Amino acid sequence: MISRKHPRSKHRRKGRRSVEPTAEPVAKRFGEIVTEGVQRWEAFYRACGLEMDNGDGEWEDLINHLRAPLPISFRVRKDSQCEPPKSIFEEVTLARNGRWIPPARQFKWCSGYQLGCDPRTAKEAYPELDAWLKQNHGGIGGGARRQEVASMVPVSVLGIEPAHEVLDMCAAPGSKTLQALDVIEQGRGMVVANELSTRRAHILCGRVGESEGFMVINHKAQLIPKKHKFDRVICDVPCSGDGTFRKYPVKWKHWDPSLGRRLHHTQIQIALRAFALLKVGGRMSYSTCSVNPLENEAVVQAILKAVSPHGRLVHVKLPGFRTYPGLNHWEVVEEREDSPEIFHCEAISQRDSKKEWYRPSMWPSGSFDLSPCLRVYPHLNNTGGFFTAVIEKTGEPWDDQSTAEPAENDRTEGISRRVTVKVRKSLSKLADKRLYNIIRAGKKRSSPQ
């Protein structure tokens, strides 16, 4: 039966059979990839300083969840009249293998539902659900949205209101954009979705469909013009994605712990632009689908330092959804020959070849309490790994006529001179002279070549 399907479906099945993929014969090759990746992941993050409240026992629970497939989840629009089948709230025992499936969970803070099994098993356990999702899934008019529960957190904690103007900095594939649009009242509020890739932006338009309060723009997120300020900004930045491996198990084979370190500068730039685009009193959510402190708390720390004292972290709670607080201490780690090596700031200053990737902003400064951030680990709610922080703008730290990037003598700590120069050079390549003038705040320059 498997042989008649596309070969990739065979691979997916291998990674979705049980909590211990290697225990199944069909999972032999794929299971080895997962097992090796999980071992590296655990060693790396233990060295980073991630601690569990219940010690090794909780670590074992976390690792078991990383090896298991991600359960199916979806969200229902609050103004929708459609309701999921009642059968998903009942316990099911599969006749094929006697596997017990727990009832679905409902999260009222996001109108979300999470089944106790992966999509492949759900088709066997709840055949009516598959038909219901196909009938109600769609663009702006669809009542149901397929979305991972942890991915619903950033928009849910922003407190978006019907008349708000919302910006999604890195919108594709559009789950968070649709979630924000579900709250916005047409004719009063609006959602602007930014996506650098024109191909992905086109797909986003098709997914959302026609909506009076929806607009798509194409910019590098860190260079979005500051002509308009927003009440809320969704800043879900590009990241290493090591919290998504339950959904895409094949990624274990290509996981590189250094990717988070390499993305650190870009994430700071995008987050600072998001803060600049906020109205005073507005809020932004900074989020990644990673658990790496260099992509999470280190970036939030850099934002707060750059905008101090005009920004603050907001405490948020999600009823019935377990989270860990943000880290106030972590180690900067590089993986070498299967043994994580801890580098301290003094040691890195002696390694000239490493200077371009290691910056002071990667280390905890101790100047800010980062515990209001939300850390989501897979074993807490049977989800992927995720990180979210909500930052409120209490004042304007920069003049409205400031340039697109910090001045050379006022660069944000943690952003290298090389990256700053690259941003400046990219400005000269803009084809639209008017947009160029907006970004450079009226500074006259020669026409682009």
UniProtKB/TrEMBL annotation:
Catalytic residues identified in the record: 289 (nucleophile)
GO function term, MF aspect, one: RNA binding
Composition bias, Basic residues: 1-16
Xref: Pfam families: Methyltr_RsmB-F (PF01189)
Binding site for S-adenosyl-L-methionine: 170-176, 195, 236
Domain SAM-dependent MTase RsmB/NOP-type: 62-394
UniProt keyword tRNA-binding present: no
Positions of the UniProt region annotated as Disordered: 1-24
Alphabetically ordered keywords of this record: Methyltransferase, RNA-binding, S-adenosyl-L-methionine, Transferase
GO biological process: RNA methylation
Gene3D superfamilies for the chain: Vaccinia Virus protein VP39 (3.40.50.150)
Family: Belongs to the class I-like SAM-binding methyltransferase superfamily. RsmB/NOP family.
Protein name: SAM-dependent MTase RsmB/NOP-type domain-containing protein
Organism: Perkinsus olseni (Perkinsus atlanticus)
